[in-house]
Design goal:
alpha/beta, Glutaredoxin, Glutathione S-transferase Yfyf (Class Pi), Chain A, domain 2, 2 domains, 5-stranded mixed beta sheet, 53% helix, 10% strand
Length: 214
């Protein structure tokens, strides 16, 4: 059974899911939800995602939660798990990197992007310059730590690409758009960002999520 991913083609969460599927060459059909029509609150969709979140994929049995995105693994489990190290030491470094992305990086960059980009575009509200600078300063401090980590290794969890790296992509593209040049001025971060942002899997979904045919 081919995976089906539900969501919006330009959403950060949908791209976070799709880049993983493209990276592992897992075929899927993409079904766009009409948010204005509240498709994500319809009874059929709520059977798949009871909380009415935006990005859900479904096939049969096994589900893995990628924050607001549900990815069904089933027969693709081993392929996705290749992006999560099995070795105990490597796995602990991966868990650490994934935790930092989730709890430290994502709140700062999403907060900055909201203030600089989405607040006016989606809600018609004025920019709060103080809040924007707060988020950018926190982000810059965190990327200083990233730069130290990446001075000793190729990726965030070691020398192998993992989900922790891929999960930075969908919001990372908003860093320069939010007014920060940290992806250019921190040398090890710049090298890492250049490598992951040029992955064919990311290029395939960067501007819009689309189905991946078998």
């Amino acid at each position: 059974m081919v995976l089906t991913l539900y969501g919006h083609p330009n959403s950060t969460c949908g791209k976070r899911a799709a880049v993983v599927l493209y990276e592992k060459n897992i075929p899927f059909n993409f079904v766009e939800l009409d948010f204005a029509n509240n498709d994500h609150k319809s009874p059929p969709y709520l059977k798949k995602q009871p909380l009415g979140k935006f990005h859900t994929s479904q096939a049969n049995l096994l589900y893995l939660l990628f924050r607001p995105t549900i990815i069904d693994l089933e027969k693709y489990a081993d392929q996705v798990r290749e992006l999560m190290p099995k070795d105990l030491k490597k796995r602990s470094l991966f868990e650490q990197a994934a935790s930092i992305e989730h709890a430290q990086f994502d709140p700062s960059v999403s907060g900055a992007a909201y203030e600089k980009i989405f607040k006016a575009r989606l809600q018609g509200l004025q920019l709060d310059e103080k809040a924007l600078q707060h988020h950018l300063e926190k982000l810059d401090a965190k990327l200083d730590v990233y730069d130290k980590i990446l001075s000793n290794q190729r990726f965030l969890a070691g020398d192998e690409l993992t989900l922790a790296d891929l999960f930075h992509l969908s919001y990372g593209v908003y860093i320069p758009l939010s007014g920060s040049n940290a992806l250019e001025t921190k040398p090890n971060v710049a090298r890492w960002w250049k490598e992951i942002s040029e992955l064919p899997s990311w290029i395939a979904v960067k501007y819009s999520v689309k189905s991946l045919q078998a």
